[in-house]
Amino acid sequence: MIPEFADSDAPSLPLWLIRPGEAEPVLPPEIGPFAANWARAQGFAAKPGQVCLLPSAEGGLDGALFGIGPEPAAADRPARERFALARAAEALPAGNWHLANRPQGFDLTQGALGWLFAQYRFDRYKRIEAPRARIVCPDGLDRDRLIAMAAGEYLARDLINTPASDMGPGELEQAARELAQRHGAEIEVTCGDDLLARNFPMIHAVGRAGAQPPRLIDIRFPGEGPRLTLVGKGVCFDTGGLDIKPSASMALMKKDMGGAANVLGLAETLARLGLHRAMQLRILIPAVENAISANAFRPGDVLTSRKGLTVEVNNTDAEGRLVLADALALADEEAPDLLVSMATLTGAARVALGPELPPFFCDDDALAATIQGAGRAHADPVWRLPFWEPYEAMIEPAIADLDNAPSGGFAGAITAALFLRRFTGQARAYAHFDIYGWQPSAAPGRPKGGAGQAMRAILHALPEILR
């Protein structure tokens, strides 16, 4: 699917955004007494998401009112519902619409972006009708930037929603190649036993039992300036390996490449905006399937990483940090200005913060504040958790340098982040995002299924980070 606004030159109907008043909503005088009386007769109270279609004198459609609820009590307080205007995209009749007013305190950029997000449907296997109400991009907004952000989100959703039967390591590689071709980037893929020859032993160990050989995807975009490297976990399906997951836990494991999908989506947005030209953008994706076969890696195995650190495997279902470790070690060798990893990594992160508030880890207080502030300002919330030094001992087993799955179950998101940090050190700054990558139930602008997370937070933080 392609996100798009209605043509500004085409006829369109007015959509009025209305807040509730003390007794009843204050209706705009421009709609006239006939439409105002009609709205009152319909019981329109400007409740969030409430729609009232306005008839013309001839019985046709003359516009609509849309309730946006009361003005927020504080500008910096997160709204209870993100992308509220997306409800209008779902509810209005087909046709072109334009915003007829701009209420104080209403974020037009978020509203327009949410409308684009609401247009998305995953229809690869089944015809699903998308909302046919389209909006004209409001004056003063950056139309191209909004479309670029929506395109990145669509790409991430498409990749996550596609089942492993059609999105294995090979198909993920193909999606990366198509992105590289669209934007003039160079791509190199190290596959199968070549991973051993080029010193990516843990990517090979995790993926060697899969139906498709494991691989490391390396994309470099043309550009000059600070180095930004994005590393995304590309576990295209996760059975848990020999420590096999129960069926209920395996049901959503097509989304275990959500980190890869998100870094590709972010790269799509950066490239569409031409921002990659002002930096040296690199994308690294270890793409594997964690499967069960005679040559699967085992609990108790000790693996030697690219960095030389040895890792005792105490749970084959903690495989994401293993493949990320080799990719992070490679990325770190170039000492990028900012190194970012994104992964659907731990259930502990979901227990702590739920499905739509991904934690991130960063040692740089100023960088962390910039990222968290950008996420809040652009309806892409993230929450900082600590690299808690006293827990380092938890990832140090008796017979190897590191333990991939400390016993006890405490602080699982933190110990996973501490594990990954051991494979960095030369990068000027490092941030790790433990995302969920999935919308469990439909919400405005966010249909149930694959979801982008932290992409816009990173996008809007970059100018300050890389200046």
Record the SSE blueprint.
Blueprint: E1 13-18, H1 32-41, E2 51-55, E3 61-67, H2 86-91, E4 95-99, H3 108-118, E5 133-135, H4 143-161, H5 169-182, E6 186-191, H6 194-197, H7 201-207, E7 215-220, E8 227-232, E9 234-238, H8 247-250, H9 258-272, E10 280-290, E11 302-304, E12 310-312, H10 320-332, E13 338-343, H11 347-353, E14 359-362, H12 365-377, E15 383-385, E16 402-403, H13 412-421, E17 430-434, E18 438-439, E19 449-450, H14 455-465
Parallel strand pairs: 1-3, 1-4, 4-5, 8-10, 8-13, 9-10, 12-16, 13-17, 14-15
Antiparallel strand pairs: 2-3, 6-7, 7-10, 11-12, 14-17, 18-19
Helix pairs in contact: 3-4, 4-9, 7-10, 9-14, 12-14
Any overview of this molecule?
With 467 residues, the protein is of the alpha/beta class. It folds into two domains: 13-119, Leucine Aminopeptidase, subunit E, domain 1; 146-465, Aminopeptidase. Helix content is 31%, strand content 19%. Helix 12 packs across helix 14. The model has no long low-confidence stretch (mean pLDDT 96).
